[in-house]
Amino acid sequence: LVEEHVRRVARDGFVCFGTNRYPVTWELAGKEVTVRLVGGQLEVWRGGCPSLCHAIRSAVTYFLYRAYLSR
């Protein structure tokens, strides 16, 4: 399962997800992106193309991966 959300990248080049902020390339600052939670990885997409990927940081690893995607 994939969890998907739309976020706006802050002017400082970070996108918020859960209780954390993840850095993205400066070109995305101020723009809307799609963040996808896939198997413990946070993917950042823009215009249908993946930009980058981060391992999810705790907040008890995003609430234990959203209680394992609500089973």
Number of helices: 1
How would you characterize the largest beta sheet? 4 strands, antiparallel
Strand content: over 45%
Structural class: alpha+beta
Calculate the mean pLDDT score and round it.
81
Overall geometric form: globular
Low-confidence stretches: 60-65
**Helical amount:** 10-25%
Radius of gyration equals 12 Å
> Helix and strand string, N-terminal first?
EEEEEEH
For the largest beta sheet, what order do the strands appear in spatially? 1-4-5-6
Describe this structure in words.
It contains one helix and six strands, in the order ββββββα. It has 71 residues and is of the alpha+beta class. The strands form two sheets. Strands 1-4-5-6 form a four-stranded antiparallel beta sheet, with no helix packed on it. It is globular, with a radius of gyration of 12 Å.
SSE topology sketch:
Elements: E1 3-8, E2 14-17, E3 20-23, E4 32-38, E5 41-46, E6 49-55, H1 60-70
Antiparallel strand pairs: 1-4, 2-3, 4-5, 5-6
Short synopsis of the structure:
With 71 residues, this protein is of the alpha+beta class.
Task: Give the tags.
alpha+beta, two-stranded antiparallel sheet, 1 helix, 6 strands
